[in-house]
Design goal:
mainly alpha; two-stranded antiparallel sheet
Length: about 375
């Protein structure tokens, strides 16, 4: 429902709301933990409040214009588009939605279609972005935080304190992304935060290796410094890979493959969340402080990936993303230069089928086409 020029900030509001919810839950847990012995029951029971609000809100939630148009309710879709845009001048956008819906309805096998050449860059992004998001090292930071907080004197409440402090930093830092993502773009946030997270993890790893573990005890001054560096790292994650790991995959798929693309994104994210959760303790036992250096190395890899292969998606209507891929230095060599198959008799030549055509590449040359089979 969001207009292209505001899509990034509005999408990240979703992540911001999640972070606020996590922070609120941590504060509730901190407060109810002091109520002995039934405080945990109060904490658990209070979870019914947001659930009830979600249910009531769902009763008033309208459909989206895209959904109405896809199901054939064109007039309702246009009326809703006028309402959410606040203007009757929506003809061009409405026609784009109708055209995209027609193309989407022609696709009977979205998962098969997403494997074709014209969708290759979207498939790569839907796989690698959630994969990299889980390898930023955020789990390592969150695991070590209670230990470090206990070191600087927070005692038995270290876990709660660390959860509240890192949760607050996470929630506040995401404001940077909300206000910058549609002004500066996605790539610059990815790359800037990559440098910030890399330096933070290297500093934490080196200090822990030199000052902590075994018979060594970290001084309070070093403990405070490490906590500050942790907050710097969390802030970088909060305005980059945290929200953008969901934003970018959501805005690169055309309607005909969006359901398949989003399914792949969520599946890859949850799968590697499971892998990291299952392997983290074993990695920690073997790597010790080196686990921060391990994840710092992955931050370098993912930053290079973004720099080389991810084009800027700021303010690009979803229906026009195919043109962005066709202009990219790498992806233009893989996807077709134009949509090859259509029924227009004005074309000088035809492929025998749509499936065959979409797996070829052509280049424009003068007034005709040169065929290059790949």
């Amino acid at each position: 429902m969001a207009p292209a020029k505001l899509r990034g900030g509005l999408n990240i509001m979703f992540q911001f709301a999640i972070n606020i919810g996590i922070l609120a839950a941590n504060l509730i847990n901190y407060g109810t933990a002091k109520i002995k012995p039934w405080g945990w029951r109060l904490s658990l029971g209070l979870a019914a409040v947001p659930a009830a609000l979600m249910f009531v809100g769902g009763l008033f939630l309208p459909e989206t214009s895209n959904s109405l148009i896809e199901r054939g309710h064109l007039e309702k879709g246009r009326a809703l588009l006028v309402k959410v845009r606040g203007t009757t001048n929506v003809d061009a956008e409405f026609e784009d939605m109708v055209d995209a819906s027609k193309k989407a309805n022609e696709v009977k096998h979205p998962f098969r279609n997403i494997l074709k050449k014209r969708n290759r860059p979207q498939l790569v992004m839907a796989t690698f972005i959630p994969f990299f998001q889980q390898l930023t090292g955020i789990n390592a930071i969150m695991f070590y935080a209670p230990v470090l907080f206990k070191t600087i004197g927070f005692g038995g409440d270290a876990s709660l304190y660390s959860a509240v402090i890192t949760g607050a930093v996470n929630a506040l830092a995401i404001f940077v992304s909300i206000f910058a993502v549609d002004r500066l773009g996605r790539r610059i946030l990815f790359l800037q935060a990559g440098v910030q997270m890399f330096i933070s993890q290297m500093v934490i790893g080196i200090i822990l290796g030199e000052k902590f573990g075994g018979s060594k005890q970290m001084s309070k001054d070093f403990g405070v410094f490490v906590v500050i560096v942790i907050c710097i790292y969390v802030a970088g994650f909060a305005w980059s890979w945290g929200p953008l790991g969901w934003l970018v995959p959501s805005e690169i798929f055309p309607l005909e493959t969006r359901s398949a693309g989003q399914s792949i994104t969520v599946s890859v994210n949850l799968f590697f969340t499971f892998v990291i959760a299952q392997s983290f303790l074993a990695m920690l036992c073997h790597f010790k402080y080196g686990i921060f250096l391990f994840f710092a190395g992955w931050v370098v890899v993912m930053s290079i990936f973004v720099y080389l292969f991810l084009p800027e998606t700021k303010s690009v209507p979803i229906e026009e993303m195919i043109n962005v891929w066709r202009k990219h230095w790498f992806w233009k060599q893989i996807i077709p230069a134009i949509d090859l198959y259509n029924g227009d008799e004005k074309l000088d030549w035809h492929f025998q089928s749509k499936d065959y055509a979409e797996n070829q590449t052509v280049q424009l040359s003068g007034s005709g086409f040169n065929k290059e089979h790949m």
